[in-house]
Amino acid sequence: MTHDLRVAWAVRHCKRQAVRHKWQMAEANIPTTRDECMALDRNDPLAPAREAFALPKGVIYLDGHSLGPATHAALARVEKAAREEWAGGLIRSWNDAGWIDLPRTVGAKLARLAGAKPEEVIVCDSVSVNLFKLASAALPLARSRTIVVEESEFPTDQYVAEGIAAGGTEKLLRVGEDGGPEAMDGGVLIKSVVNYRTGRVADVRTHEQRAAASGGLIVWDLSHATGVIDLKLGADGARLATGCTYKFVNGGPGAPAFVYVREDLASKLSSPIAGWFGHAEPFAFASGYAPKEGVARFAAGTPGVLSLSALDAAMDVFAGVETSALQRKARQLGDLIVARTAAMGLESISPGVGKLRGGHVSVRHDEGYAVVQALIARGIIPDFRAPDAMRFGVSPLIVRHVDVWDAMDQLADVLATRAWDKPEFRRRAAVT
């Protein structure tokens, strides 16, 4: 079969698939035309928030689950923090500009997104460091000194578990996808609320109940959940969690992570990293360590003030926005992606049911990396996760229904015409 014939067959196949799935979309209340998408966008209560972002023209950004875009406020705040507070105020700005308070005040803003009390969240360090601190601190309280992690977890989470077990006194147990809560048996489980590949949402309440009954604890990774899922850590009984702020929270590249510890548990835990900023009186310069009260004891290193300043300003876009509205729109947009990609014959590894899915949809393609590069060349930016997953993120504050529709049109064309089949699209970059 010649190239032209292959292309013609592929186009006809896609058209047949589209017709078959159109009625299914209508039955599920999913828009079936671009006009319907535009109507939904006109009535979207979150639409005004889009103006707060410095989005480049001609780009449809579907990668907010990896790196959120910049807000105008965050850019202005970094400029102020650098030129006025750092350059002008110098070291005085720790007091005069309130640098010293940023981990606590920004943590209080994040607490609302997480469904926690303001005093239960502190901004500090990275997710990896915080996972280590929390899991290590939890082990003495667990019935079993077993650290459990699922093989489907983000690799770094698995590496941290390996590192803890390498100490020799803890046992590492790796289990299959979603097998952690049943297998933990009184140990400490590291688990994501939203899986990084599939977007599947864990049942926090049910898993916490099972963990408590077995004498175990769960350290939740909120990295792909904060800012897009209607988290209710307190109501669901979560005791320990950490998450990043550079994805759906839009804090910027390398933005600091945060720690959540349920209020009644904090005094029972000891951080394995006794850092200066976790000391009760850091400027007493005492030789011995005395931890702060509450979650603040899990702070360690000096906070990155410029990153924290950007994050502080970025958080303002969430003021007055209900997390339930974020979740609802993300699921609507995700449903549209699931339906449109199914019409193209692509296999989704994300739940088809919206309530089981976070803020991204992953579909398989043998040449997924090249397909993503071809889309990027057209101004459509998703991302790729080896070996074959194309991830489409739907940050609800910036992504419109019409953006998803247009992106899916481009994806269909890239597949039908094999536009991805070029050497420059197959060549792997350092960051994929």
Task: Please provide a written account of the structure.
The protein has 432 residues and is of the alpha/beta class. The chain contains 14 helices and 13 strands. It has helices at residues 3-27, 34-42, 72-88, 93-96, 102-114, 127-138, 155-165, 180-183, 204-214, 305-314, 323-343, 368-377, 401-417, 423-426, and strands spanning 60-61, 121-123, 146-150, 171-175, 188-192, 217-221, 240-243, 258-261, 347-348, 360-364, 380-381, 383-385, 389-393. A seven-stranded mixed sheet has the order 2-8-7-6-5-3-4, sandwiched between helices. Strand 3 (146-150), helix 7 (155-165) and strand 4 form a beta-alpha-beta unit. The radius of gyration is 23 Å and the shape is globular. The model has no long low-confidence stretch (mean pLDDT 94).
